[in-house]
């Protein structure tokens, strides 16, 4: 049975960087994986791409042929892809026979909130290939800095969860940058767990002081109540360069799409699969890691890396990313075992 993840998020939220990191991680644990680029505008891919939508259609061509701008062009491109979906599915089917699939998607949020092409494509894939998919929705941590923007982001997450109708893992990306943005009124867990949004009210009101602003803050507060009523939205955090945060996130994703419980026919990653089956995600204190003691953790990390490089030099062998992953996985397992006891 094939498995995969669909990586979505607003422009610049870190999707392609994450896809590249994920494939590196999967290589390190021995899972065969492939990235499929579904963004017709994405002409600079940081990863080796197994299948590229740009082989079928490119945004530049569509804009020229149809006389459309970049946004209209993107809609048109995905609608026309819808017509050639059988060919695309055939290609994906071939890849999924031997490989876990990561879909890198375009950043236009409307494609996931009120446009049905991508939704239809994924549903057809599920039906025809019996592939187990999970959406990984990345949102830049910068949005944590404003209460009203944070609530908008919650609504966006809820909207795409309801529209795409697939298991979702919402993620605040670039969490390594959040401490640079100044002090937040609440701990990070408050923002990731999405509980009791009424605490945000005074902050929303402070952000909008004009007459219209007062109405805006009322609307924002209603939206917060609505999101809370659904009780569906919560977040993980990710700093793509921090291997522990990647490992934690991937253990959550493996659970969400069922990979952890399903077959490992396409896998080759039995050690990892067994560790996650037994333990689930580690319980990391994100406030401590990314805000309160960030400098200390970063220093430790840098020191460990330096030691690994020196060790490799001593043994006269090149130091590569696989060594780094191997060491990070060992740490994670040790940490994990302590948590499980
Ligand atoms: N500090 C930091 N920067 C990141 C992280 N992830 C991505 N970035 C940076 O964010 C920028 C945008 O990343 P991309 O991966 O191109 O984002 P994207 O979502 O694919 O962007 P579009 O395809 O244009 O929608 C790049 O400069 C990345 O290096 C992260 O975890 N931490
Ligand atoms: Mg991209």
Automatic annotation (TrEMBL):
Keywords carried by this UniProt record: GTP-binding, Hydrolase, Nucleotide-binding
Gene Ontology molecular function: any one: GTP binding
UniProt keyword annotation of Transferase present: no
Keyword Ligase listed: no
One GO term of the biological process aspect: establishment of mitotic sister chromatid cohesion
Gene3D superfamilies: P-loop containing nucleotide triphosphate hydrolases
SUPFAM superfamilies: P-loop containing nucleoside triphosphate hydrolases
GO cellular component, one term: cytoplasm
Known role: Small GTPase required for proper localization of RNA polymerase II and III (RNAPII and RNAPIII). May act at an RNAP assembly step prior to nuclear import.
Family to which this protein belongs: Belongs to the GPN-loop GTPase family.
Self-association state and partner proteins as the record states: Binds to RNA polymerase II (RNAPII).
Family annotation (PANTHER family): GPN-LOOP GTPASE 2 (PTHR21231:SF3), XPA-BINDING PROTEIN 1-RELATED (PTHR21231)
Full protein name: GPN-loop GTPase 2
Organism: Wickerhamomyces anomalus (strain ATCC 58044 / CBS 1984 / NCYC 433 / NRRL Y-366-8) (Yeast)
């Amino acid at each position: 049975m094939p498995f995969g993840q669909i990586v979505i998020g607003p422009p610049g939220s870190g999707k392609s960087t994450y896809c590249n990191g994920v494939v590196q991680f999967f290589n390190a644990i021995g899972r065969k994986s492939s990235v499929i680029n579904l963004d017709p505008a994405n002409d600079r891919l940081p990863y080796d791409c197994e299948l590229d939508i740009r082989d079928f259609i490119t945004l530049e061509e569509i804009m020229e042929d149809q006389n459309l701008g970049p946004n209209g062009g993107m809609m048109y491109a995905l609608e026309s892809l819808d017509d050639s979906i059988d060919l695309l599915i055939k290609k994906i089917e071939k890849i999924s026979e031997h490989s876990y699939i990561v879909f890198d998607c375009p950043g236009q949020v409307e494609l996931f909130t009120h446009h049905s092409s991508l939704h239809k494509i994924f549903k057809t894939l599920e039906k025809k290939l019996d592939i187990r998919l999970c959406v990984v929705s990345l949102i830049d941590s910068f949005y944590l800095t404003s209460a009203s923007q944070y609530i908008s982001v919650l609504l966006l997450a809820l909207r795409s969860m309801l529209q795409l109708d697939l298991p979702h893992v919402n993620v605040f990306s670039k969490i390594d940058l959040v401490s640079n943005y100044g002090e937040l009124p609440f701990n990070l867990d408050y923002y990731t767990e999405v509980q009791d949004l009424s605490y945000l009210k005074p902050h929303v009101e402070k952000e909008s002081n004009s007459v219209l602003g007062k109405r805006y803050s009322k609307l924002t507060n209603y939206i917060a109540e609505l999101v809370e009523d659904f009780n569906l939205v919560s977040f993980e955090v990710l700093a793509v360069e921090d291997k522990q945060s990647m490992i934690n996130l991937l253990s959550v994703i493996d659970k969400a799409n069922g990979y952890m419980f399903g077959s490992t026919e396409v896998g080759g990653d039995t050690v990892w699969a067994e560790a996650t089956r037994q333990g689930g995600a580690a319980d990391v204190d994100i406030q401590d890691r990314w805000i309160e003691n960030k400098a200390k953790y970063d220093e430790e990390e840098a020191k460990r890396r330096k030691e690994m490089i020196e060790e490799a030099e001593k043994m006269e062998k090149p130091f590569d990313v696989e060594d780094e992953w191997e060491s990070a996985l060992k740490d994670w397992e040790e940490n994990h075992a302590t948590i499980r006891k």
